Amino acid sequence: GENVEQHPSTLSVQEGDSAVIKCTYSDSASNYFPWYKQELGKRPQLIIDIRSNVGEKKDQRIAVTLNKTAKHFSLHITETQPEDSAVYFCAARDSGYSTLTFGKGTMLLVSP
Amino acid sequence: GAVVSQHPSWVICKSGTSVKIECRSLDFQATTMFWYRQFPKQSLMLMATSNEGSKATYEQGVEKDKFLINHASLTLSTLTVTSAHPEDSSFYICSASPTSGIYNEQFFGPGTRLTVL
């Protein structure tokens, strides 16, 4: 089955700095890679996703890159704000299944 | 946008009792729903995948007789924790996909906090 590794587990940045979270996956058949943001006690919210036929996708301050050859994808947040503080999860989905495999999460803390 | 609800949002029960959690897709039909368990400061662990009208597929290590899943309609799936024990205390989250397929987004419910005394 799929295995998703996520780093770092915690990330502290100053407001206005950039934050990068990296994930690797094991199954070369995976073709859908969403990123979720989860605030304490709340549901995970999809913030951006990328499909395997695309190398990069951007939405305002958030971007995701995908390297299929190396089997890794990254989340980039620019001009971070305190409200970006949350736990971020990456995930991967195998084309043969509909289940998502999640990384262990990164706790992002943005200090004012 | 697609909305998934869960009920109850939190529940406290005595050890040995059973608890039922409902997951509903409010504005779309969900062929597939998923049940996750999340411990504090940990990731979401998939427990089972339920498909409308058929038996759920459980992940390795999840006791199907303890965690009963029923997906009787395209908008409702239920998870029943039978004979609950304190170690079953956790945050249970469901998600739903509008249709089966490889590119469809999963929409998450708000979660149910279960505390077993």
Can you tell me about this structure?
The complex is a heterodimer of chains A (112) and B (117). Chain A has strands spanning 4-7, 10-14, 19-25, 30-38, 45-51, 56-59, 62-67, 72-77, 86-94, 100-102, 106-111. Helix content of chain A is 0%, strand content 59%. In chain A, strand 6 and strand 7 (62-67) form a beta hairpin. The relative contact order of chain A is 0.34. With 117 residues, chain B is mostly beta strands. In chain B, strand 5 and strand 6 (57-58) form a beta hairpin. The mean pLDDT of chain B is 90. Chains A and B meet through strand 4, strand 5 and strand 10 of A and strand 9 and strand 10 of B.
- What is the 3D shape of chain A? globular
Quaternary organisation of the protein chains: heterodimer
Instruction: Count the E strands of chain A.
Output: 11
Distance between the termini of chain A: 41 Å
Reported for the largest beta sheet of chain A, the result is: 6 strands, mixed
Helix content percent band of chain A: under 10%
Shape of chain B: globular
Secondary structure tally, helices of chain A: 0
| Biggest sheet details of chain B | 7 strands, mixed
The secondary-structure class of chain B comes to mainly beta
Task: Detail the poorly predicted runs of chain B.
Answer: none
Q: H/E element string of chain A?
A: EEEEEEEEEEE
- Mean pLDDT score of chain A, rounded? 93
Cα end-to-end separation of chain B:
37 Å
Low-confidence stretches of chain A: none
Total number of beta strands of chain B = 11
Radius of gyration of chain A: 13 Å
Strand content of chain B: over 45%
Strand-residue proportion of chain A: over 45%
